[in-house]
Amino acid sequence: MTICTWNSQGNPLNNDDKTRILQQLYCRYDVLLLQECGNLNIYINSGVNVVDGDYLYRPQAGAFNIRCSSCIISKLPIKHTTSQYLQSGSGRSMIGAFLTQENINIYNIHAVSGGIGAADVISSLNHCQSPFILGGDMNCTPDSLKSRGRSNNRSLLIGTSSRYKNVILATTGMHTTKSFKEYDYFIHSDDLTHQGVERHTSMGGDHYPVFATFSKKIYR
User: Fold this and answer.
1) d(CA 44, CA 56)
2) 164-170 β-sheet, strand order
3) Contact in structure between 60 and 72 (CB atoms under 8 Å)
4) Which residues pair with 146 in a beta bridge?
5) Strand-strand pairing, 210-216 and 2-7
């Protein structure tokens, strides 16, 4: 299963270059996680063919303005959509959906800005139900997350010593923003595995899209 996250910095359909990027992403990946996508309406003048079996989950996500809305676009069936307000009180929330064929929970987050989103990410992870994949604009670097929990390479322990969650960071190791920070990546439960975490060649706005392939672990 392939997933891509992208902060489009406004409705991508209002810009020719962003529309082209959206078309590319839609064609290549099973699930898209978009942040700051404005009043995106995937059904109108998008050049993206949404056919029977495609799913669009586009709540306002509790944002104080329409630009900060988020959405999940999936070619795979989804249900049990959720929304969880962020700890920062920024008016944003983490949105989620359950992929029925894969039996995996997908979450999309747009953490509080200013490079201080680690608290939002850590608190949101406590609400993620395994097996899960959390992607989005974390507004914090992977290293800042490691400083808040016990880490071992790309593994991160969240919570207390008696009640904790072991999660895996899936990052490119490259900057994903114009400010040369790595804010866009994935975090997933340790019962899943990932490969090929890469950055898209075109930025589009002030963030690069980031994509990866995920699968369930096979125990022998």
Assistant:
1) 13
2) 78-85, 93-99, 104-110, 132-137, 184-189, 164-170, 155-159, 150-152
3) no
4) none
5) antiparallel
Are 13 and 86 in contact, with CB atoms under 8 Å apart?
no
Give yes or no for a contact between 66 and 39, defined as CB atoms under 8 angstroms apart: yes
Check: pTM over 0.90? Answer yes or no.
no
pLDDT tens digit sequence for 95-132: 888 998 899 999 999 998 877 888 889 888 988 999 99
Taking residue 146's Cβ as centre, other Cβ atoms within 10 Å add up to 17
Contacts of 108 (CB under 8 A, 6+ apart): 5, 33, 34, 35, 70, 71, 72, 94, 95, 96, 134, 135, 136
The amino acid occupying position 187 is I
